[in-house]
Design brief:
- The chain is α/β, with parallel strands linked by helices and 154 residues long.
- The chain is built from 5 helices and 6 strands.
- The protein has one domain: TIM Barrel (Alpha-Beta Barrel), CATH 3.20.20.150.
- The strands form 2 sheets. The protein has a 4-stranded parallel sheet with strand order 1-2-3-6. A two-stranded antiparallel sheet has the order 4-5.
- The longest helix has 11 residues.
- It binds zinc ion (ZN).
- Zinc ion binds next to loops.
Amino acid sequence: MEPNQNIKIALETMSGKGSELGINFLQLQTIIRGVKYSHLVGVCWDTCHLNDAGYDLVNNLEQVIEEFDKIIGLDKLFVIHLNDSKNIKGSHKDRHENIGYGNLGFDSLCSILYHPKFVNIIKILETPWNNSEPPYKEEIIMFKNKQFNNFLNR
Ligand SMILES: [Zn+2]
């Protein structure tokens, strides 16, 4: 890394499988502080991974945001991977689910997408494909309408 470059790197929150690092905000803070050009390094929230790591985005979103801001700083949140999770909070698994079909649920993910503190943060869907069809169009329509639609007929 050169000090004058402007490419930024976002470290993704991990779900805590096996020997993964970066499974909580303190670990990510330690990594960022240990990097020489730490002003170019930030964090990518993955909502599925945060849930599986034990963060309660369903009932305690404000507290999670506050904790992140205190430990790392909201200015270091570069991007959000918006995914539902097949697993319960704290399961340490990492299995993405389509929006509204998992343990986070549509309303919680909508609250994150439209949170005033996240207005300028890039959001990316990493939800599973179904029968080799990408689900993104339907999921984006649901988010725009702020209304869950059972497009997978499950
Ligand atoms: Zn991700």
